From TrEMBL:
It comes from Geoanaerobacter pelophilus. This is EVE domain-containing protein. Signal peptide: none annotated. Keywords: Phosphoprotein. The keyword Transmembrane helix does not apply. The keyword Cell membrane does not apply. Pfam families: EVE. Residues 2-150 form the EVE domain.
Amino acid sequence: MSYWLFKSEPGCFSFDDLKNRPDSTEHWDGVRNYQARNFLRDQVKPGDLVLFYHSNIPEPAVVGLAEVVREGYPDFTAFDPHSEHFDPKSSVAAPIWYMVDVRYVEPMKKPVTLERIKTNPLLSEMPLVKRSRLSIQPVTPEQWQMILAMAGMET
DNA sequence: GCCAACGTTGGC
DNA sequence: GCCAACGTTGGC
């Protein structure tokens, strides 16, 4: 079982949006970066746990927990000319982009802001801190425990 | 809204 | 295959 951090702009898709989906489950589609794609296609598995991170807002933060419920499969929004994520180079026969399905678990008792993450020496190796724009990131068990502790959620 | 980081594209 | 131009992300 692995840990991940998934980024989303809340104006586009928020943690509450996930909660309000049927079965609180949603496709994590629209990822168009090869490194993130590789994680989704090859490493993200059902049962894995996810830190849901809100980006591109005044106070970016980890706001909740989600669980992976379906492993990587072709992102069908890439096949749809009407989708804003349409990619003519991807096809059903040779898909380029992948998505997983995730389910709402619970909100953080206390959101863990980027500011707090950046000032914690034990989290300095997180891709988030190294200013990577990667939207799907691995999280180590140690980092996971620290983030949950900072959220007031002892494991 | 600005801009640095960085990934992608395309001419050569 | 190099690298400049360009586009996107995302913190501030």
